[in-house]
Amino acid sequence: MRTVTATEAARNFSRVLDLLEHESEEIVVLRNNQPVAKLVPGAPRMTALEALGDLYRTLPDAEGNAWIEDARRMDRRLRKQVRDPWA
Asked: How confident is the prediction for the chain on average, in pLDDT?
């Protein structure tokens, strides 16, 4: 955990945010040598693919296979509906 004075935090706010975002560093802000705030990194971001990546592991095999078949069926249906506007 890193400590900075309130003045340093104000003057180098962009750097403070970089430490939080890129290095996941917690920062304690001091005023008159007393801690007045603790800055912690935000929750990590996930893409939809990452969020759903482990879904197949949580489903029973029969449900997983049914889900895959539904997805394939919808894909085939959508391909029939999509047409080339320049044709």
From this structure: 86
Q: Where are the domains of the chain?
A: 2-39, 48-81
Residue with tokens 């044709």: 87
Residue for token pair 């890129």: 22
Please give the Cα distance from 12 to 63 (Å, whole number).
53
Instruction: Output phi, psi for 28, to 5 deg.
Output: -100, 130
> ∠ CA 66-55-69 to the nearest 5 degrees?
20
Model pTM?
A: 0.52
- Spatial distance between the Cα atoms of 23 and 17, rounded to a whole number of angstroms: 10
Does domain 2-39 fall into CATH 3.40.50?
no
DSSP 8-state class, residue 16: H
- One-letter amino acid identity for 8? E
pLDDT tens for residues 52-86? 777 667 778 888 788 889 989 988 888 887 777 78
